[in-house]
Structures are given as structure tokens and as C-alpha cells.
Amino acid sequence: MSSRDTVLGRVRRALADVPREEQPGDVPVARDYLRVHGARTPEQTADLLAENLADYRAFVHRCSADGLARLIARLLAERGSASVLVPDGLPPRWLAVADAVRIADRAAGTPRELDAVDSVVTGCAVAVAETGTIVLDGGPAQGRRRITLVPDHHICVVRVPEQVVDSVPQALGRLDPSRPLTWISGPSATSDIELDRVEGVHGPRTLEVVLVAD
Fold first, then answer.
1. Nearest CA-CA partner of 130 in 29, 210, 55
2. pTM (2 decimals)?
3. 19: Cα separation from own chain's centroid
4. Across-strand partners of 64?
């Protein structure tokens, strides 16, 4: 008997008492787990998000809506970015005072072209405080998944408190599972068998998150 036969046999035995006409949605599943761990004010939730992002080695900045354009321009200048990738729907005012050349995201753009871009600026769909996670769903100001994976420097703007939730269950309630979801917890990193950390393997080496007070 093969391993496949063993696994399928276990599945059949587990389903032996299930009527053939029963569908997965016919039996309710109890979801009585905690949706949020503790009670927090919106300010405390934003603080927790910033703390967990920093723990993942992301750089966290805070500003008002009026100061966003100046902050982005400063971050690009400090990085020495001569070019910045701009996804569809990015508010023009975000880059109003930046000196970098704007490069529009194109479906025909190649990975090599994306790799030549110095930075990318995007918004997000939602941010999760308890896990320090930013979620992109390809909506306005976010672009396609690959534009946040190939360039080495990603600036992500999060509107606070509008786009910040406490927990993953709360985030899932805001997201459409049919969309291309990208979950980002800090800059791309991995470790080899000796636990030597290497950054920038599967995505940007540097992640900067800007928390903008609405």
C-alpha cells in the first residue's frame, strides 16, 4: 500500500458517517475564538501596530495628512532614489514635492525594468496591529503584487485609524478573498540553517511604513 492509499483511506474513514448529499456549508462551524486580544483605544492600536512593525525591522514614520508629501520626499531623498514607481490611483499630492522621476506601473513592464526602479510608493488595504502586518489587495494606490516585491525600497502609506484593525479576524472581515492579497510583515528576510539572516530575498530589502493621521 502506498502513502497515497494510506492518506485516502484515512479520509474515507473520517467521512464515513457524512451523508453524500451534504455540502460543506450545510453544517455550521463554531467560531467562538477571541477576535481581539484585550481592549484598546484607536491610539493604542496604532501604537501597537508601530511597535510590531518596528520589531519586524520596518521603519515607521508618523505624520499628518498635510505633512505626508514632505515626508515622502524626504524619505526618497535620504534613500537617494532617482526614480519612483507609481501605481494606478496613487493620489498625486503624495509625490507633489518629490524630486524622483515618476514611473507609471505598466502591465507590460518586465521584472528587469522593475528591478531598475529605486523605490515604490503605495497605499494599503488594511493593517493589523497585533501582528504588525500590512495587507495589499491590488486596489487603488496599491498596484499589482510584483511592484511591491521587485523594487528594493517600499514606502507604504497607512491611514490611521481608518485602515488599522486590531486583529487578523477583523482584517479578514474587510478583505475580499477573491482579490490578490499580499500580506507583508516587515521587509523580506530569510535565514539559512545557521540562522544567518538575509534580507531582500523575496521582496524589498527596506520597508518604510508611514502612519498618516486622518
1. 55
2. 0.83
3. 41
4. 213
Per-residue confidence (pLDDT) for residue 1, from 0 to 100: 78
State mean pLDDT over 186-196: 72
Within a domain: 22: no
The pLDDT of residue 200: 61
Residue 106 belongs to a domain: yes
165: number of Cβ within 10 Å: 22
C-alpha cell at 64: 499628518
How many distinct structural domains can be found in the chain? Answer: 1
Give the position of cell 485609524.
Answer: 161
pLDDT over 80 at 197, yes or no: no
C-alpha cell at 137: 489587495
Q: Range of 86's domain?
A: 42-213
Q: What letter represents residue 84's amino acid? A: V
Q: What is the DSSP string of the chain?
A: --HHHHHHHHHHHHTTTS-TT--GGGS-----S-SSSS---HHHHHHHHHHHHHHTT-EEEEEEGGGHHHHHHHHHHHHT-SEEEE-TT--GGGGTT--SEEEE--TT--HHHHHT--EEEE--SEEETTTTEEEE-S-TTT--GGGGTSSSEEEEEEEETTTEESSHHHHHHHS-TTS--EEE-SS-EEE-TT--EEESSSS-SEEEEEEEE-
